[in-house]
Amino acid sequence: MQTINATAVAQEVILAARGVTKFYEGKTERVLVLDNITLELRAGELVALLGPSGSGKSTLLRTLAGLVRPSLGQVLVHGQPLEGPNPQVAIVFQSFALYPWLTVLQNVELGLLAKELPRADRRRRALAAIDLIGLDGFEDAYPRELSGGMKQRVGFARALVVEPEALFMDEPFSALDVLTAQNLREQLLDLWTEREMPTRAILMVTHNIEPEYSALVEAIYRLMNSTQARVEDILPLARPVQVPVVERPYQVLPHAAIGDLTGLVGHLDEVGGRQDLPVLARDLQLELDELLPLIEGLDILGLGAAQEGDAVLTELGREFAAADVQEEKAIFRAQVMHHVQLIRQVMDQLRETDSHSFKEDELLEQLQQYFSEPEARRQLDTAIDWGRFAELFAYDDDSGELYLEEEEEESGDSE
Ligand SMILES: Nc1ncnc2c1ncn2[C@@H]1O[C@H](COP(=O)(O)OP(=O)(O)OP(=O)(O)O)[C@@H](O)[C@H]1O
Ligand SMILES: [Mg+2]
Questions:
Q1: Which of 7, 116, 312, 363 has fewest C-beta within 10 Å?
Q2: Which domain holds residue 153?
Q3: In the predicted structure, residue 75 carries a pLDDT above the cut 60
Q4: Would you say residue 244 lies in a domain?
């Protein structure tokens, strides 16, 4: 991973990582994700984290935001050790992470929930942020009515409404088409360099080095000549890239781990089977982009859904919560076989082969025709996680081999 820094003059350090190291305990080994990172974010700086997929960019960003605890080392905010979420930081996510059931205004107001402001103040500040980011007139629209670029504007408004000292962005433009991304990026940089937002520093994650790098070069020019020539006159515009649109024969599985799904069902059951989404996010200490995939997972599995701003359990979800482990697995098995196409495909393939097993490589390649490489991996990982829990098949991490569970093998086609 590398950092590129778009400023020249040394200023006050807002945020620092000192020897930050993070590892996750895998089943057989310890996975080192961040290795002794030391970094400073100073007032006036725009710092970009660059690196290939899986290199730990998001983990570092979350660590600096106080959402992930380092295994070793320290994060300092104005020289003080950070314990818990950093209130000076707001994050914009690639996935937008908007609640489809809430209006633009309500989504933006969510950014202020932690602040316990009077309702009228919350509204006033949200409206100002919406206006600032160019969404005036869309306060009452729902996300589905908005284009991708407008959705991400809502994401920015929700971050800026808290007037964060540091704005963090985790690949905020990569889900947008090139021109929309460029437009939004330029406007954001304008707001920043013209000091229309009080944000003092920006930390941006990207793995899309080329366009993001050229954006940084632009930013550097802007910072140096902010009142002089327009950047467009100096630099050629980033070259638009043709992105082929592929119809996917696969549904897109949310990245929802079994432990989190069952935990969420348990929690919702405890509170009576229904809870206001923002309250739920707060109770579970989840960021919006972490909670949404879980709700989507429950929805796919018929265990829960989102209704009018609440997360609710279905009747089956309540049954699942009350069930013992074996019943739980039986319900889950029936649901994934019924609703998850990738798991059905794996099962068909396992039953067709004599050995009742196969290596994942070919399936992974197939998925890569429709998903990016890391996304294909995540889709398969999710299917494996769910299928294992359902005791439909087993998986060997080392060999990447999938095979039928014993019982299934003996009873042959039990479907
Ligand atoms: N909670 C977790 N438990 C275990 N491993 C994790 C966890 N979070 C991240 N990892 C692993 O840490 C590594 C770095 O992940 P991270 O998401 O930070 O990478 P990234 O650089 O942001 O990748 P991308 O460009 O795909 O977003 C990956 O190998 C990932 O599988
Ligand atoms: Mg990432």
A1: 116
A2: 2-234
A3: yes
A4: no
Please tell me the total count of domains within the chain.
3
C-alpha–C-alpha distance, residues 352 and 325, integer Å: 29
Note whether residue 248 is domain-resident.
no
Residues with CB under 5 A from ligand 2 (ion): 58
Q: Are 386 and 346 in contact (CB under 8 A)?
A: no
CA of 56 to the centre of ligand 1 (A): 5
Q: What is the pLDDT of residue 90?
A: 93
Instruction: Report CA 260 to chain centroid distance, whole Å.
Output: 15
pLDDT bucket at 170, cuts 50 / 70 / 90:
very high
Atom of ligand 1 nearest to the CA of 56: 18
- Does one domain contain both 122 and 210? yes
Q: Of ligand 1's atoms, which has the minimum distance to the CA of residue 171?
A: 27
- pLDDT one-digit tens code per residue, 306-329: 887 789 999 999 999 999 989 999
Written as six digits, the tokens of 293 are 């995939």
> Within this chain, do residues 128 and 266 fall inside the same structural domain, yes or no?
no
Q: Is the CB of 206 under 6 A from ligand 1?
A: no
- The answer, yes or no, to whether any atom of ligand 1 lies below 6 A from the CB of 24, is yes
Nearest ligand, CA 56: 1
Instruction: Quote the strand ranges of 230-345, DSSP E.
Output: 274-276, 304-307, 310-313
Asked if residue 49 is part of any domain, the answer here is yes
State which of 33, 68, 378, 380 you would mutate to test the pocket of ligand 1, scoring each by most atoms of that ligand within 8 A of its C-beta: 33
- Residue 98 resides in a domain: yes
Mean pLDDT of 188-213: 80
Residues 268 and 364 grouped into a single domain: no
The alpha helices in 57-196, defined as continuous H runs, are 57-64, 104-110, 119-132, 148-160, 178-193
- What is the 3-state composition of the chain as percent helix, strand, coil, each rounded to the nearest 5? 45, 20, 35
Q: Are residues 15 and 111 in the same domain?
A: yes
Ligand 1, closest atom to CA 60? 18
State the virtual CA torsion across 334, 336, 341, 346 in degrees, nearest 10: -90
Residue that is last in its domain, among 292, 322, 352: 322
Question: Ligand 1: which residue has its CA nearest to atom 14?
Answer: 56
Range of lowest pLDDT (26-35, 56-65, 207-216, 386-395): 207-216
Identify the three-state secondary structure at position 408: helix
Quick one: 116 exposed, middle or buried, by C-beta within 10 A (0-12, 13-18, 19+)?
A: exposed
The dihedral of CA 255, 63, 94, 376: what is its sign? negative
